[in-house]
Structure formats: structure tokens, C-alpha cells
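[job 4417] fold queue: 2 targets
>>> target A
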Amino acid sequence: MSWTKPSAQDLYDTIDETWAPFAKEIKDGWCIREGRGGGKRVSAANQEHVSAEIGTAEAAMAALKQPALFMIRDGFPTLEMHLAKRGYSIIDPVVMLARRVADKSSDLPADFLDKPSSAQLAIWKDAGIDEHRVAVMNRVTGPKTFLQTEGATGFVAIHNEIAMVHAVEVDPDRRRKGLGRQLMLAASMWAGMKGAKTVSVIATRQNKPAQALYKGLGYEVIGHYHYRIKR
């Protein structure tokens, strides 16, 4: 099967649709997100036009009672410079990776659920993925599934033939047994069965074990982003 590598912009769009903020508004050259406690990805503002004023985004986030938090995407070096001058520090640099979906196996190595099981919720809770982040997953409206194996959990959703895997966690007592690899393979197979051409994932740059796992499965780095916040 032929595969067209997605662009960084393709993956930025996929993040927004597969890890959904409570609300999103394009306002005066900014994308403003209301996160409702769901974490940085659903709360950060990103610049849609290079002339957009930083103060406009700061005011919009203040109105939502959210910290002023900016996602810096590829292609916006001027925003980077101006935020640095205003005292915003870099946090959580992220790598976006993707590969062609895997061919379906006769034995899918995971269960695919319409809603998270109690076992999944327990693993996520122990990993700091609370009810607000589970609400993010529940808000996704496109094709999605909650992935489960014994001792591991994850979430995958599709936008424009690109699947993205989120919230992959393994029970600490079951690590180093290949469960993360098994879950990622299952996600890729499910994506292909649902018509996706690409499966993608994101990881912080400091999470070297996750990056090694993904690259070992054939994922390629597509792009990057990071956040800036006032400390």
C-alpha cells in the first residue's frame, strides 16, 4: 500500500480533532482553546497569523480563567522571540511521529472498547491521567476506540485518514514485557481497519524510552512543537 507522509500541519490538525478541547475559537489571528482542566494540549493558544497580537491571546485566556500558555508550532519564529522578551519560558518540547498503518493480523493484540473500562481508568489514574483528561477523550466525535490489554491502556482516534494514539500507559508492575509495543501495533491495525492511511503519536523530547519504542516500530519524526508559559 502506498503511503504519503503527512506534514507537520496535518498532525497539528489531527491533535486538535483527536484530543478535543472543551471549546475552540479562532479570534484575531489566534486559536484559543478552553481546556476545563484537560491539560496543556487543550488549553494552549497558538498563533494562526504572524501579525496576531500576543496581548489579545493573553486577554482571551484570562477571560477563561486559564494561565497564559502558548503552543509554538513550526513556522512561527517571531512569536518565539516576542514571548521570550515577555518572560515566557519553554516547557515540554514535543516530537510528532508517524508511519503507515500496519496490516491487519488474524489475531488483534488488544481489546477495542467504546468506553474506558475500570481497569483502564485505574492505570490512567495512577499515571496522573485524571477524569478531566478522560473527558477530553470522551469529547472526540470522530472514529475512536479505547485500547486495552492486560496491564496496558491507550486511546486512538482518526481525523482525515490520520489516526493518533494518545494516553499510552503500562501498569508499572507489567513494564518491560512488550505491552507498549503490543498496544501500538493494535492501534495501527485498528486504524487501518477503519480506513486510516497513517498512524501517528506524540512524545516529549525527554521521554527517550517512548521515542525509542516508536522509532523501533518504524515511526518517523514529522515535526515539533513546544509551549511557553510565565513561571
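>>> target B
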Amino acid sequence: MVHHLGLYNSILNQYVSELRNVEVQHDRMRFRRNLERIGEIMAYEISKLMIYEEVEITTPLGASNMHIPKEQPILGTILRAGLPLHQGFLNYFDHADNAFISAYRKHHKDGSFEIALEYISCPSLENRTLILCDPMLATGSSIVMTYKAMMEKGIPRHTHIVCAIASAQGIEHVKSHLSENVTIWAAAVDEELTAQAYIVPGLGDAGDLAFGEKL
């Protein structure tokens, strides 16, 4: 299942427009904060699908029966670009367990690249809800590789893959390679993917815009 939240008018679209805008992108703090805001909105939407239980809460004047999440999700993030998006989720799921994954494009001199996965720090995923954050879903290869590598830590009950901008091709790649227990959430979906696997119109390199250019 795919949730394209940008199809509906909401404040989310303002944050995405600022992420894309070259006149706003020079402000790294605002770029990171907009990714964080998108994470917060996505966290709220995903929270509607979680399992809840009724508990009795004691107040200064009596008692109140409330429905709260039965468990917290596991928040997984692909370094480094995913960190601000991850923080948005952590602001809402503040007792969540966390996972961090190093997956990046290793470029060759001929312009081609491969996905390098070097590090995973992750709790048991068995029968848990996993939320996996990466701002850009381009080809979908890094998400698929990351997901399959994380399955060595257990099989989640359900996985939510969250991105700010996805390509239509990347979404199809994920849908064709991952199980039915995976939901994709995107704030925006772009149709074009260049030969170098960059999303168009996209926004550029999310990691560089958030934290500075890398060698």
C-alpha cells in the first residue's frame, strides 16, 4: 500500500515546497526542521494505524479511561540524510526503540554506483512495528537492501517506509521486491528519474543540504 500525502491539501505541502526551493535550501537549519516536521506529520498519521489499549489514569480529581498505544514502534533510519526525519518521529514516539543503518551509494569512475551497507545497530524486530526513514526514495535499491539486511534481526509485524520525496519507479521497485506487510508513505511523488538515479524535480542531495557537502 502507498500513502501519497501530498495529494491532499495540508500544511505538509508547505514544508515540501520549502525543501525543494533553491532560495530556501541555503538555510540548513530550516531544511532539517522541515524534514523533522514532515516526520512529525507522518508519525501522527501512522499512529492512527497502531494497536491501542484502554488504561485507567488517575487525575488530581478522579480517574479517566484512556486509549493509548499498546507498544512503541522501532524507528529505523538510514544515515546520514534520514536523521532529521527520524527526529520528527522520535518527537512523537518518544519511548521508541531505535535502529541506525549505514547505506550509501558507492560511486565508480564510470559514473555507475552500487549500494554499500556497512553498519546496522538494531534491536529485535520480531513481531514489532518498524518505521524505516529515508528522505529520498529514488531507485528503491537501498531501501530494499536495508530492509532485507534488517530481517536478520527478526520479522516485523508490519513495516512503514517513510520518505519526503519518492520516484514512481522507486515505489514500484519496493512493491515488487518486498512483502505485503510493507506500507510506503511519501509526502510527494515525482515521475522522473535521471540516468544517474536522481529524482526530478526532486530537491537535490538531502544529506548535503542538511549537513554539508561530502567528498
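[job 4417] complete. Note on B: The chain has one domain: 2-52+64-204.
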